[in-house]
Write a structure and sequence with these properties.
about 525 residues; alpha+beta; 23-stranded mixed beta sheet; 10 helices; 23 strands; about 25% helix
Length: about 525
């Protein structure tokens, strides 16, 4: 027996159903679909058969041996060849409904037994310039079906993974940082369950390799699509992710939930170049999150969750705590112009980073805002304390930190831990942060303390001068008293003694006058002496 049939129609959906492929959209293009069927052999024994479907430059074809098994079940073994702009339609035939996959061109050995079993082995192909190998199987029991498989892919992209999980329409850009297209996870519950393991030596984003040695599972059930147990090397550390999208059905809003962890990842491996130039170190931590919305942007706008992190070998550029030692050593801070003080502070801060061996923090997310509160870091010669808020939709930054001295020994007394504060305000976005230095508080404290020290110095000088004058007055009064006593003693002697006493008294009076002239007394003391 030899049979050859050709079918062609612009109703691609109808023709696809006729050849037994159900509601799958095999081809992405538009136009007339051509199906060619060929059979040759003996039906009671076996047939050599082929079937191919094509539209424009896309095609799917099978060629192999066909036999009728028990209960007239058609079974076959042969080779499958595909050249598709979107492999999602082929995945739908295999039970992976609502999966959006990239273009694929390749071949595989196919064995099927009616509708209850299909197995692809020795899968080899390319998607663009990326090669892949693997195997896939589909088994049906009554109304339930299960898909299992594993693939090795030369390189996967974050964009491709996002397309597979959220659907291609979800990645339509909008006004915010995140895409604003609708998340597609199916209009009704799925009839299959599946899990496909994937490995890739490279993971790229924006065409740039970001991670290495990735492995994960793409799984689904009646209502949930999951990117499970994702693990990859990142900057010498490791990143893990578990992400799920729920639920398949008529509701437009979908719930995206998951958990992300980082271990031993350098900050510059996950931060923007601007942020990485400001902050360095190694991060370890995790975050649990959940958000509901119709698009990725609306999901981030309603995100809730919590997380924590530890930073080791933290370095914050241009925030050198040695600024406090430099300022405390200024000789004439009181007479310096505030702008000159600000210049000294700014230049000294730029001499080095703020460093700390370890810093830990915890944050919360609610209403699409991540909040890091009461973050305190004790570093080498300084302490940082502050808060940060991040608007998750726009990645907008709001907050700041205060740098204070730690363990500073200021011999001049110009700097104290209570008043020495340098503020840093953060604005802009996480991708393009803006840092603004605020040294006004420190300048005001320095000038106020310098003024206090000057007042204290003048008070000491006045006290010393007053003490010298008091001592001189006491000495003068003592001499006057001695002279008075001598004069009184001389006045008690008769005759010649009396004239000598008078003469001696005149001499003593002359000496007292000389002493008084050399050591003038305060007005009060002079009045007291005159009265005496």
């Amino acid at each position: 027996m030899r049979v050859t049939a050709t079918l062609e129609s612009t109703d691609t959906a109808g023709l696809t159903r006729q050849i037994g492929s159900g509601e799958a959209d095999l081809f992405a293009g538009q136009g007339s679909m051509l199906v060619v069927i060929g059979l040759e052999g003996t039906p009671s024994n076996s047939l050599n058969g082929s079937i191919s479907a094509s539209l424009a430059g896309e095609s799917v074809g099978f060629a192999g041996n066909l036999v009728f098994g028990p209960n007239a079940e058609l079974q076959g073994t042969g080779q499958l060849n595909v050249d598709l702009a979107d492999a999602g339609g082929l995945a739908q035939i295999a039970g992976g409904r609502d999966l959006s996959l990239p273009m694929a061109k390749g071949s595989a050995d196919l064995h099927f037994e009616g509708e209850r079993l299909a197995r692809l082995t020795n899968v080899q192909g390319t998607s663009g310039e990326t090669g892949f190998t693997g195997e896939l199987s589909l088994s049906r029991t009554n109304n339930a079906a299960a898909v299992a498989g594993n693939f090795a892919i030369d390189e996967i992209s974050i964009e491709g993974l996002s397309t597979a999980v959220f659907g291609p329409a979800a990645l339509v850009p909008g006004d915010s940082v995140w895409p604003e297209g609708p998340i597609a996870s199916g209009d009704s519950p799925r009839q299959t369950r599946g899990s496909v393991s994937i490995t890739a030596p490279l993971v790229s984003a924006g065409g740039v390799a970001r991670m290495t040695n990735a492995s994960f599972e793409l799984s689904w059930d009646e209502s949930r699509l999951r990117l499970a147990r994702f693990e990859a090397g990142l900057g010498g550390g490791k990143a893990t992710l578990d992400l799920s999208v729920c639920c398949a059905g008529a509701l437009l809003d979908k719930t995206v939930s998951g958990r992300l962890t980082l271990a031993g990842v350098p900050v510059n491996a996950i931060a923007s170049p601007t942020m990485a130039a400001m902050v360095g170190g190694t991060i370890e931590g995790g975050v649990r999150f959940e958000g509901t919305g119709a698009s990725p942007a609306s999901v981030f706008g309603a995100m809730t969750g919590e997380g924590n992190f530890t930073l080791t070998n933290l370095a914050v550029d241009q925030l050198d705590p040695r600024v406090f030692s430099a300022v405390s050593g200024l000789d004439d801070a009181l007479n310096m112009d505030p702008d000159a003080l600000a210049s000294v502070i700014g230049v000294t801060l730029q001499q080095g980073p703020f460093t700390a061996g370890r810093a830990t923090g915890a944050f919360t997310m609610a209403g699409g805002v991540a909040r890091l509160a009461n973050f305190i870091v004790e570093g080498q010669g300084g302490r940082l304390a502050g808060n940060i808020n991040v608007q998750l939709v726009s990645t907008g930054l709001e907050g700041g930190f205060v740098l204070t001295p730690l363990g500073l020994d200021d011999a001049n007394g110009l700097i104290s831990a209570d008043t020495a504060r340098i503020g840093t305000q953060l604005t802009g976005t996480v991708l393009a942060p803006v840092s603004t230095l605020d040294s006004d508080t420190l300048i005001a404290a320095i000038r106020a303390r310098a003024n206090e020290l000057e007042v204290e110095r003048l008070e000491v000088l006045r006290a010393e001068d007053a003490e010298r004058q008091r001592a001189a007055a006491e000495e003068r009064n003592r001499l006057i008293e001695e002279q008075r006593q001598r004069a009184a003693a001389g006045s008690c002697s008769p005759g010649r003694g009396r004239s000598r006493a008078i003469s001696g008294g005149r001499g003593a009076a002359s000496r007292t006058a000389a002493i008084a002239a050399a050591n003038p007394a305060p007005t009060g003391a002079a009045s007291a002496a005159g009265s005496a």
